[in-house]
Design brief:
Elements lengths: L7 E3 L5 H13 L4 E2 L14 E4 L7 H21 L2 H7 L2 E3 L5 E3 L10 H11 E3 L3 E5 L6 E5 L14 E8 L5 E2 L2 E3 L4 E3 L6 E5 L6 E3 L2 E2 L3 E10 L2 H5 L3
């Protein structure tokens, strides 16, 4: 059996029609801006036109649509890798006798969706969604990077636990999401959902698309903040 690389791709997480509608709206938006990394614009590292949609009422339907698609993929990810939750959090839940006991990996396959979903929502939260448009032959994110960095004083970027990307189109060459240490390239397919860890172990880059533009939706799954998980002290 080959070793797990913790990179999961869900085919058809979002319909082709839904993806096409998002791409059309993205291309028509007057609010596109130069893509940022780490709070700044560095086109030599990442060249794209982006649109952050979480705080926009006119994009609320797309935010909902994307989060629903990601939620289903995340549930499957947690069933395959329950350590995503139990390794960092040492979770406890009431057993059949009402007494608290620590959850183990073997508990997850028998959990129904309601119970696992409740656990997910207690421990994790969705990040802000960014739509990105990479122009053929020039756009891309060729800099090897991970998603964790200690830039902001609140530590918000250190709460990122998993990354996700939904590929909104295909029909171009190259443009893969490439993971350095896993030596794996994910070829974009319309509607596919990619989920992977955020740490340096999953250093990655977005290769430049050729002979066609590439559009994606991307964000993170974050831990709930300490005050939500443990209460104020």
């Amino acid at each position: 059996m080959s070793a797990a690389d913790f990179i999961e791709v869900t085919s058809g997480a979002l319909s082709v029609e839904a993806c096409a509608a998002i791409v059309a709206r993205l291309r028509a938006s007057p609010d596109l801006h130069a893509g940022e990394i780490g709070g700044g614009v560095y086109p030599e590292l990442k060249r794209s036109r982006d649109l952050s949609i979480n705080d926009r009422a006119d994009w609320a339907d797309v935010v909902q649509q994307l989060n629903v698609a990601v939620y289903a993929g995340l549930m499957a990810y947690l069933r395959k890798y329950p350590q995503t939750l139990i390794a960092p959090l040492m979770l406890q839940q009431p057993g059949s006798d009402g007494a608290l006991r620590r959850l183990e990996a073997d508990d997850f396959p028998t959990m129904d969706d309601q119970r696992l979903g409740g656990l997910l929502q207690t421990c994790l939260r969705p990040g802000a969604i960014n739509l990105q448009w990479y122009a053929a032959g020039e756009g891309g994110y060729p800099y090897w990077h991970c998603e964790l960095y200690p830039r902001d004083a609140s530590g918000e970027t250190l709460h990122r636990h998993l990354l996700w990307t939904i590929y909104l189109n295909e029909g171009f060459d190259a443009g893969e999401t490439e993971f350095l240490f896993q030596q794996r390239k994910i070829t974009p397919r319309t509607g596919d959902l990619l989920i992977a860890p955020t740490a340096f172990t999953h250093t990655h880059r977005g290769n430049r698309p050729q002979n066609g533009d590439k559009c994606i939706a991307t964000s993170w799954i974050l831990f709930q903040r300490a005050e939500a998980l443990y209460g104020s002290t």
